[in-house]
Amino acid sequence: MWDPTQYTRFRDERKRPFFELLSRVDAESPSHVADLGCGTGDLTRVLSERWPQAQVVGVDSSVEMVEEARRRPASATVRFEVGDLADWRPERPLDVLVSNAALHWLPDHATLMGRLVAKLAPSAVLAFQVPANFEAPSHRLVDEARALPRFASKLAPVRRRPVETLERYEALLSDAGLSVDAWETTYLHLLPGEDAVLQWLLGTTLRPVLAALGDEEGRAFVEELRPRLRQAYPAQARGTAFLFTRRFVVARRGG
After folding, report:
1. Sign of CA dihedral 74, 76, 82, 88
2. What ranges in the chain are assigned the alpha helix state H?
3. What does DSSP say about strands 120-131 and 178-191: parallel, antiparallel, or unpaired?
4. How confident is the model at residue 214 (pLDDT cuts 50, 70, 90)?
5. Which residues form the Methyltransferase domain (predicted)?
6. Is the pLDDT of residue 13 over 90?
7. What is the b/e burial string over 103-115, where b = at least 16 CB atoms within 10 angstroms of the residue's CB?
8. CA distances from 183 to 24, 46, 165 (A)
9. pLDDT digits over 15-32, tens only?
10. Could you say which of 51, 69, 127, 147 is the most buried, measured as most Cβ atoms within 10 Å of its Cβ?
11. Tell me, what's the pLDDT at 15?
12. For 6, left (φ over 0), alpha (ψ -120 to 50), or beta?
């Protein structure tokens, strides 16, 4: 379902939130670090550079992404695995667990938070960010196209990707015994190129939609969506303005 080349088309915009998240992770010398939803592994390598003494594992459910990650140079302390992000179990409790723009693909975040906490060692840090723009024009227009009679039946099983509020994440993790720092950031991206917002969505949001539709109907869906996005996000000489809100959580388990 995933296309590493399409996903990395907006590499700088996608990795910026990771560094904002990582800047709030206070961990001096962790031994075991994991990156859930590692994609092509670029940011997993950043974790190994920050903590060179740690064993770092990147986990992704996409075979294509993990194969691409394994092709790229990495330290001997880094490895990549294909695995379900909810059910994956580390070989030993983790000192740092990071997930950048991946957990929104998983359902039932109330249960998920408990599963993630169970992977942590005492005094470990859980840090994740998820998109929080599901009511933005881009996603509303995708939903409008999904509801069209031509596509609705095939796309009924493809769920939207809701996330919890900051207050809910704080409550879930505090109840599990963690201290929580949570915040939101809205980025204004100026995306280059023609149909820039469509190209952004083709790297993420539209992947399961197109996989469910197949080639011919997928192309028809894209052509249905294209003019809607052009109207909502007009291109300018300096780029297409695209507001994107992300939700961040950094939580530390008690010792």
Report:
1. negative
2. 4-7, 11-22, 42-50, 63-71, 109-118, 137-146, 149-155, 166-175, 196-203, 206-213, 215-232
3. unpaired
4. very high
5. 33-121
6. no
7. bbbbeebeebbee
8. 11, 22, 10
9. 899 999 999 999 999 999
10. 69
11. 85
12. alpha
pLDDT for res 8: 59
CA distances from 9 to 19, 116, 170, 230 (A): 18, 30, 33, 19
- How high does pLDDT run on average in the chain? 93
Structure tokens given for 129: 């960010």
Secondary structure (DSSP) of 39-84:
TTSHHHHHHHHHSTTSEEEEEES-HHHHHHHHHS---TTEEEEE--
Answer for the pair 249, 127: CB distance below 8 angstroms, yes or no: yes
- Determine phi and psi for 251, rounding to 5 degrees: -135, 140
Condensed to tens digits (0 to 9), the pLDDT of residues 21-79 reads 999 999 999 999 999 999 989 999 999 999 999 999 999 999 988 999 999 988 999 99
Domains and CATH numbers, the chain: 4-253 (3.40.50.150)
Of the candidates 37, 73, 31, 39, the one whose C-alpha atom is nearest the C-alpha of residue 56 is 31
User: Residue 219: which residues within 8 A CB-CB, separation 6 or more?
Assistant: none
Token pair of 46 as six digits = 């950043």
Round to whole Å and give the CA distance between 178 and 98. Answer: 15
Is the pLDDT at 205 greater than 80? The verdict is: yes
Burial 184-209 (b: 16+ CB within 10 A, else e): eeeeebebeeebbbbbbbbbbbbbbb
Predicted confidence band of residue 210 (pLDDT cuts 50, 70, 90): very high
| Separation of alpha carbons 209 and 114, rounded Å | 29
d(CA 37, CA 98): 9
